[in-house]
Amino acid sequence: MIHEVDEGLRRLLAENALEASGIEVVFDAPTRDWAARRTAPTVCVFLYDIREDATRRGSGAGEVHDEDGHLVARRSPPRWFQLTYLVTAWASRPQDEHRLLSQVLATLVATDTLPARLLTGTLADLGLTVGLDTAGALADAPAAADVWSALGGELKASLGVRVQAPLAGVTKAAAPPVTEGLVVRTAAARTGEEASPGRRLRYTEVGDPGGDGFTGPRERPAAPGRRRRRGDRQP
């Protein structure tokens, strides 16, 4: 799921012609050594914090059906995580960095979600909304100064971006559907007699004139007529 969020952010920034302008979008840690090797204008989207949103944790299990409508698996509900990124711009002059960072900011604040057309993999399959919060209050995340200190670099202008994304639940295959009826045999009444070879119960599927289906409801036999009691007269 994490790499799919990365790809969604990269596609979102690419739509604003960053890559067409020769500006590279990377997800590296902006350490001092990395900054020394940089030679071209770059937007760095560094993931530094991952936390589960326990308030959105669900329970139970959903059903997965095949094209014919048969139950094939059960899936636990998705779990939601908050991914926090540090977004920085790198260029030869501070003015160019600020211009580039402003362009990134305008792109990210224009939407509150990652557009569905940009999602891939499990994020696209789940069909759930992936939230996007840019430059908001990230009270429970490490401060930017602490992140730069841990990276061993100098403090730099940056954007805090938080993505709320679902992690697909665990899928367990269901037992195959029953396709054969029960076999009923009767025991021998007296010693020396052979037991009945048995017969297979057949269930008729609704709308099946052949009566070979098993999954449909069983037809009830017609109700027998009322038994004549002693003393009743013949009609």
TrEMBL record:
Residues 191-205 have a biased composition (Basic and acidic residues). Residues 225-235 have a biased composition (Basic residues). Pfam families: Pvc16_N. Coiled coil: none annotated. Residues 4-179 form the Pvc16 N-terminal domain. Residues 189-235 are annotated as: Disordered. It comes from the Bacteria. This is Pvc16 N-terminal domain-containing protein. The lineage of its organism: Bacteria, Bacillati, Actinomycetota, Actinomycetes, Propionibacteriales.
